[in-house]
Amino acid sequence: MKSISIHAMSVSFGAVQVLHDVDLDIAPGECFGLVGESGSGKSTVLRCASLLNENWTGEAMIDGRNVRDMDVRERARTLQMVFQDPYGSLHPRHSIRSALAEGLRVNGITDREPRIAQAMQDVGLPVEFLDRYPHQLSGGQRQRVAIARALVLEPDILFLDEPTSALDVSVQAEVLNLLVRLREEKGFTYVMVSHDLAVVDHMCDRFAIMQHGRIVEVLPRSAIPGNEATQRYARELIAASLEYERAM
Ligand SMILES: Nc1ncnc2c1ncn2[C@@H]1O[C@H](COP(=O)(O)OP(=O)(O)OP(=O)(O)O)[C@@H](O)[C@H]1O
């Protein structure tokens, strides 16, 4: 299990600074949530820490090792991302087998078939699905493929960017439960972006509330039901979410 430590992460797009000195310390095996209004910088934290975006200042360390000191292969075997929209991230004319094989090939891994079969089993999909194409799967099945594509590289850390928000509510719970089980089985460390505090409450040990590119407060999950946030914005965000839950 691996820890993640982000220190003084700042990023600007043109003249606009979208992250201001973000500090986060995430324990090995923890599920850590990032919540906050749209545009507050949650996805940017994941994209910078994984070096999908390289233009930022500060440091991101994994188990004490700077991500910038890792080569692309080491990084891919350490950290994988799962995005919100599996349709957008799976090539429509590539079979599921080739979607899963691609990362293995790019990263010079040769024992591809057993890893692919294992990943399909891990996400609860039959191996016959390997010959299908993305449009031949349901939304939930496609998201399972996106998770399997991350698993084949046997990473230690998964960055999950709204992994279920494109799915029907009933399917959301299945995929979240799959993610809970995988973390228990494999000892993953998760960082999960979500706009839904109910999802954070279900999944995360702790979470950070972000606003305008800053961390407002870091709280344990147990602070949600009684709204124990100390910062005004954090309290308001939790209160709004609790009210919404009650109204449902
Ligand atoms: N490549 C980019 N170029 C310019 N601006 C960007 C880029 N990526 C993000 N931004 C801006 O940075 C800010 C933070 O975006 P980010 O996607 O991190 O927010 P978010 O909290 O994840 O929002 P959402 O919940 O809507 O996904 C936004 O104002 C966004 O418009």
Automatic annotation (TrEMBL):
| Pfam families listed in its UniProt record | ABC_tran (PF00005)
> Could you state a single Gene Ontology molecular function term?
ATP binding
Please verify whether the record's keywords include ATP-binding: yes
> Which residues are in the ABC transporter domain?
1-237
Q: InterPro entries attached here? A: AAA+_ATPase (IPR003593), ABC_transp_ATP-bind (IPR050319), ABC_transporter-like_ATP-bd (IPR003439), ABC_transporter-like_CS (IPR017871), P-loop_NTPase (IPR027417)
List the CDD domains. ABC_NikE_OppD_transporters
Any idea which UniProt keywords this protein has?
ATP-binding, Nucleotide-binding, Transport
Name the SMART domains for this protein: AAA
Q: Which family does it belong to?
A: Belongs to the ABC transporter superfamily.
Q: State the protein's name.
A: ABC transporter ATP-binding protein
- Per the UniProt record, the source organism is Roseinatronobacter alkalisoli
